[in-house]
Specification:
single chain, 39% helix, 382 residues
Amino acid sequence: MIMRPFWLRKIEDAWSKRSILWLSGVRRVGKTTLTRMLSPTNLIYKNCDLPSVRRELEDPEFFLDSLPTGTTVALDEVHRLEDPSLLLKIASDEFPSLKIIATGSSTLAASHKFQDSLTGRKHVVHLAPVLWQECRSIFGIQDLDRRLLHGGLPEALLASDKDSEFFAEWLDSVYARDIQELFHVRNRTGFLDLVGLLMRQSGGQLDVTKLAQDSGLARPTVNSYLESLQFAHLVRIVRPLHGSSKREIVKRPKCYAFDTGFVTHEKGWDVLRPEDRGLLWEHLVLDTLCTQFSPESILYWKDKSNREIDFVVRTKRDMHHIVECKIDVDRVPTSIFEEFRKRYPNGKNFAVSPRVRQPYRTRKDGIEITYCDGSNLGDTET
């Protein structure tokens, strides 16, 4: 078992704020394995996929009352319970000495089964596919192309060869176990066709009308499916930053697939050309950003002259940090940084590259830039 200290620290930090932790993430991203890595000796693990466990938890008050004070309870696939939010609400309100970690593939409030989103009672940790920093440190993988092609689901990442059947089977499983059950999506073919289109266009601007034409779905259906895909963490929407000029793009968000392995699978790539790596690297940087900032604070910037910043992190009203993703650190576009800073002068400038081992700073054309691999992007206050 490969220990994952970054995520274990996030869980412990979350428990210091709330007794209820919601650990979300796509199927087979490693939620169960991570849960079993927790250190408490009094950890009670319950797999809610099992009928016997679901029967045991039908009376949540009786179950929780039977546990010793200070017990840690892991409820894996908790959405399989008939009323999962009731159990978690009772645990939070009546048994605060218990620590509960509940796992699921979607956002807590997404499923019709969750009649209470537990606002103010829980802390959320979203487990992303294996981060590039984890690849190099604890997984022993130094080959960027392997991470980009295989993706970050541990089983696929650690496989000696990329197995196309794994990705096809995974998509079928997610549709049957998550999308159909939680969101009542019945059009399997239309849904999976849309997923394929989004994977192939990942990292580009979202055009719902064209997606509807290409998938054969109605525009409202595409919007509904997109919402389900976001709840299930299969896509991320990155909205444009605007407000300082009429020449900025204001309406066209970008859509990123959750994992590069599925992008390359849908594109039919088994080897990468130099021009392929930049877009895929953006996905890995976005994963890292989402572990350190709220998704709503991560934007991109583009104007009508096609000048573009990959990501902008807004931490305060007038504080905008540039995050430019580059394989080659010698190709950082300082002229675009200058243009952006005319409109948004406050914030730091980061150039993120897999080739940077230790962060360092330079000044080019009056612009101070921090070069890093992404692991220290959360350090925007110093």
